[in-house]
Amino acid sequence: MDTVVVMRSTATNTDVGGVVERISELGLTPNISRGEFRTLIGAAGGKSPAIIQQLEQLQGVDRVIAVTQPYKLASREFHEADTILDIKGIRVGGPHVNIIAGPCAIEGREMLFEIGGLVKEAGASILRGGAFKPRSSPYSYQGMGKEGLELLKEAGEKLEMPTITEVTDPRDVGIVAEYADIFQIGARNMQNFNLLLEVGKSHKPVFIKRGLAASITEWLMSAEYVLSQGNHRVILCERGMRTFNEETRFTLDVSAVPVVQERSHLPVFVDPSHAAGKRDLVPALALAAIGAGAAGLIIEVHSCPDKAMCDGPQAVLPARFAKLMDQVKRVAEIVDHRVTRWGDAPAQRRRVENGGWMS
Length: 359
Ligand code: PEP
Ligand code: MN
Description:
Layout: E1 2-7, H1 13-25, E2 29-34, E3 39-44, H2 49-56, E4 61-67, E5 85-87, E6 90-92, E7 96-102, H3 109-122, E8 126-128, H4 146-159, E9 163-166, H5 173-179, E10 182-185, H6 193-200, E11 206-209, H7 216-228, E12 234-238, H8 256-263, E13 268-270, H9 272-276, H10 282-291, E14 296-300, H11 318-334, E15 338-339, H12 345-351
Parallel strand pairs: 7-8, 7-14, 7-15, 8-9, 9-10, 10-11, 11-12, 12-13, 13-14
Antiparallel strand pairs: 1-3, 1-4, 2-3, 5-6
Helix pairs in contact: 3-4, 3-11, 6-7, 10-11
Residues 104, 274, 300, 310-311 line the site of manganese (II) ion.
């Protein structure tokens, strides 16, 4: 069993130093995670109730929590309530359902603005678009790079939507942070630990796709890499895994949603597009995910999928996406969740206050 010391938001550097020193004196290994709002200090090897009691009494300590799981800060044991992030006034997690939509890859201004406008009108709250595309083949379209990031930022500002884009290289974290609101860590990079450490040093939300063959524990350990660096704004996304099934591109693990929700306080999204690989299957998987309690979906939409540079066969047409949004809203209500439409954001922004220790 290990323990995590949660410092008060008012704790000083001297208080943190005092706790670190005491942990070392006890023969344990301290690990500091300096968040935007609070500092957390892990004490690996801390076993006994006596140790917990001693740490609890130190200056600046709010509480001390024992965690049995290998992932600490990601676990429900550490943080019982659902984490709800505030992303530009949009609440993500808990009972809030958010739909991220847009093209797989940013291919040009006109296309991005057209698709962005349509998905916003249909009710999506966050705009997606890849500028750096990690492709299975080195000869496939690799994305527009920085120019794509510029277009995404412009579209997000014009449409008043937060944006998400994939970052594939630790060296690009700075530039992606300049242009996008959420870092997407792709399935193939889920265990790129240097990349996770780098986005962990930022305070922008990190959306971690589950690896093609990753266990739930491995996936949560990837979240732990980010959390351990002090970035407490993490979202998880199930996107299908590799099985013997040839009818779909991957096999969606719907059960990952309730399993992760039991083990972790972090919001869990589902990507039905990459799991299905075929547009006709996307709505069924999307509704199954919302019915299972997912905090949201990330869906690829294209107005001209036969001309798409990437993932055209799984891109849903805007009209079908609009119908799906209506269905999502109804299924979400059944599980006592509520879909955030882009239009809710300004009203939410007024209501949002930074209540939680994480945001
Ligand atoms: C994507 O979202 O376009 C993507 C490449 O997803 P994944 O990393 O899940 O394959
Ligand atoms: Mn894609």
